[in-house]
Batch of 4 targets.
Target 1
Amino acid sequence: MFRPIRKKALRYIVLPNVCLFIGLAIYFPGSELPIALTLATGIQRGSLQTKIDACEDKAITGNTLTDDETEFLSDLYTCLYKGARLTFILPEVSKMMEHYLAQSGEPLTIDASIFNTNDKVTEKMEAIKAEIRASTQLRSIYRSEEFYMPDFSNIDSVFGLYYGHITAKPIRRGDTIQIQWRAEVPWEWPSYASLAEKHGDPHAESFPIPNASCLLLGINGAITIDNGLGEYLTQLGLAKSFIAYAEWVEVID
């Protein structure tokens, strides 16, 4: 027979959860809270997905969103950047999304690690370093072609980067070469029109947002959001594109 839970023990169970809920309600105020809870847990994900899909359909067909739908999108993307901040593994994504929604359009400095711990970027860096080492006369600047930067070697980059480029400014110092690196990526989301032209499907770049239910359901428990919807925010006056960049120094032999 189970013993009844004592009041003191009940306090230890209930009180932390109440405090957690209050904390979340403060961090995600008003209409943000139910969205944030669904994004985190997957509970009522069908309802949230339906709202997202309806906004995507209107964005593609050119139908005007209602004021409630526009407010919903503002809350949704605010929850995404706040949630990314809470994960502690997506710090630059959170920073860039917040800057995007702030609509200043000013360039944003981000941490260099999203680039220089990323295998796709470091591969380009090695190619440039080989070119520098082979140069009898150093050029003032070396530049990569534009390339697709996201790579699973750096999770932050998977959600935060797109097409960008890197440059290197080398200075010979005795037997070594000091390189001033700069990596930059336009935080400019693809439009539905450009996706349709490129892939033949405006929904072509639709990505899953994982939540706790994915532990049981796998990718089927995720909520999906089109890249094109992110660009549509600029048309609604909810966001503005900008350049994200990082600079760092490396010394090579």
Target 2
Amino acid sequence: MIPNGQSAVIERTAPDLSALQEQIQQLQAQVDALRAQSPENRLSMVVFSGDLDRVLAAFVIASGAAASGMEVSMFFTFWGLTALRQKRESRGKTLFQKLMGWMTPVGSRGLGVSKMNFGGIGAKMLRTMMRQQGVPQLEEMAQMARDLGVRIVACQMSMDVMGIHKDELIDGIEVGGVATFLGDATKSKATLFI
């Protein structure tokens, strides 16, 4: 049996305890809501450039992020798509799409550098200097990124405009639209445009 004095104290503190528990539940709900809104350990990037040095930088960053445990997605659009092409196909394309296909490089070996390309000499020099320093080539970096689970997405709209068919791309490339990119980017800690 509880003595009268203690019983009165318990009766006075019971509402305070109930209010405190309610505040704790409200705070927990706020913390849960904030947690749901916070970005995931993820990196998203748009690869717009078709320059060797820029595409290389994109794959270096993607591989580094994936190796550190981040989920990574790369969204290749317009000129960036040239790095993903493995062959040139003319069948079923408009005249402009055929011309675009012939004027743009096929694959990473055909990419020039963004500065001082000089008809492809700049790209050859860069590749030679990378080899001399033991730096992996773009093709090795791209494979490393894929081996680390980097998601590589080709922009469907850009493919349609430029007349690039899925069978012209290297194997294992996902095709998606801007909603695919935004779905990843809205959950990412960092979003890059290269």
Target 3
Amino acid sequence: MTGQDIEAGRKKAEACVACHGPDGNSVLPLFPILAGQTSRYLYLELRDFKEARRADPQMSPMAAALTREEMLDLAAFFAAQKPRPTGFKPDEARAARGKAKADETLCTMCHLGGFAGQNEIPRVAGQHYEYIVKQLRDFKGRVRTNDAGSMTSVARTLSDQDIEDLGHYLASLQ
């Protein structure tokens, strides 16, 4: 398979630094941490932005011009990076409620133990609180629909408090 060249991805990632940081560890809470995501997930998200299955005012134009090989290279580069702690200080009671909700909704069936992700399922452990909350709200409101319905159906059962509690819990994990 062509692509998946980490060094080529590093060079191409220069355009990603402003939002996602030089190693995929965004310091801006509304931009996701890409470091440590699976390369398959990253590739599919880039492809979805390129093919308008997922929309974002910043990402859609960035992905539009990428070739398949460039998307694979970028995915390989960011997947090879190590996620760093965000410094988020969770509310312990909210994080405990978030863990209980995660257990109740069987989140680890897809996201795995430790919320490390697998294949096309993202790593959500240690992700920015603000980003987690926004994505869950977007799935619930059907603003984000590139999930084959899985996250949309789960998110629709969540209250606003559940979403915020899950954000505290997931952001507290490493």
Target 4
Amino acid sequence: MVLVLNLNMAVDKTVYLKRFKRGSIHRYPCALTMPGGKGVNVARALKTFSVPAELMGFAGGYLGLWIKKELIKEGLRAHLIEHNLGESRVCYSIVEKKGISTDFNEDGPAINYSLSQKFIDAYEKKLLNADMVSLSGRGVLGLKKGFYSFLARFAADKKIPFFADLSGEPLIEILNQGVFAAKINNYEFEHSFKMTFSPYSMKKIFDKNRVKGLEILIVTNRHKPFYCLTKEGFFEVLPPKLKSYVTPVGAGDSFMAGLIKCVSHKKNIKETLSFCAAAAACDCETLGAGIITASGIKKYLPFVKIKEKKI
């Protein structure tokens, strides 16, 4: 079972407009409304891959109750720490023609120490039945320094592979405790490590954290080539050209789900990177995040190009 941590649960609303004009009133038939947050999108994609997963996160107020209900409807297992400190956040995405997305994301309520301890207690118990842990997305206000360190350290002590897709200080915290795989984008790399991205700076970060347990480091850059460093080598991957482009929202989460699936099935690194790129491309064809199909991935697999390089 993959334990998917989505600390800051959300209600995701996505609207498609031909053109978004500032200062205007826009009318549309309806919004696509789903439980969201990057971890939820990962779990949604894992369900498509038939990989057992369970979500964990904080859910507040009436919106938190709605999230819980809708996750059950989707067939996604979840252990939510419910509270009345405020409503779970709402994230609004306005998608225009050609895939341009304008996003409005709330921070969500701050979590107090008592609730954070309740989460940690539940996390320790859930790890007893977990084969892997995934942590994705925006953190929660109010969490004390060291919270993320604990999550990674406890998994490392149990020798459970930890997959991370986050940035900034939380990323630094968990890397110091031993993470199996980290996937971030170009901007997040520069923001987190305070250095210009290049294959050489990427290698510097990988070498520093490899001794702590890091085995896979991936840095993406939207539709441009992305890079992967492992003990097997350095790879440049050219994603496939999209045949039907709607929005990139959620593509990185389907990528992460693909990475988890391939590692769990012991695929080699080239097979893994091809599958991840194809899964991300497939997600770009849908308005909802984490919504992919096996046929869509199969369609893109032959068009992923991988080059092994020396640095």
